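hiii, so i know i said id send this last week but things got crazy w the move. better late than never?? heres the sequnce for the chain we talked about at the cafe, plus the structure i predicted for it. fair warning i was half asleep when i ran it
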Amino acid sequence: MDRLAALEAEVKAESDAQRTRKEAALAKLRDQRVTQTSERDQLRARQAELVGRKRTPVEEPTRRADHARGDDADHLEDIGGALELASKANRVKKELARPREKGEKSWAISGGLSLMGPVGWLYAGSWREAVPATAAWAGVLALASFLPVFLMWPVFMVVMPLSAITGVVYALQYNRTGKRQRLFGGDKDKKRKQLRGG
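okay and structure toks below
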């Protein structure tokens, strides 16, 4: 428990340090943008005076500053999305690093078995999804025995990694709820139950 607490404190300190670095980088980026915009506006104003444009030099810098503020807002939204994705990845990392308790399914075993196809889903997946998928996979393998390997290889290169990821998700869902959970079509079952209840 002490090691786990120390590990959690280390992960928290690391994420805090990363957040601080990102905030400092954002502040620095904003300052640089403001400085660049100001310098650019001054240069354009001097050029406008030299060329003798009739437009006043104040209008152009104001328009450019408004445009730069819009760019900053878009850039900050992109960074916010990236930070949200990083925090989700950090939560998944913590979940995967957590030691397995009694009665839980190993995500590594589930992913390894599922790398061979949906047969691995039988380890932690919903019976209503794993059994039909396994039967379909057996049919694909039977068909593959009649076809040249180079035709089936692209199918295997796509299906097998996706199957492994699905196996890992099944194991994580099982550990979270303590029972086999459906990943596909679960919303339809909920709607049916609500209609029956109502």
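btw Helices lie at 2-51, 59-97, 107-114, 127-144, 149-177, 186-197. thought thatd interest u
miss u guys!!
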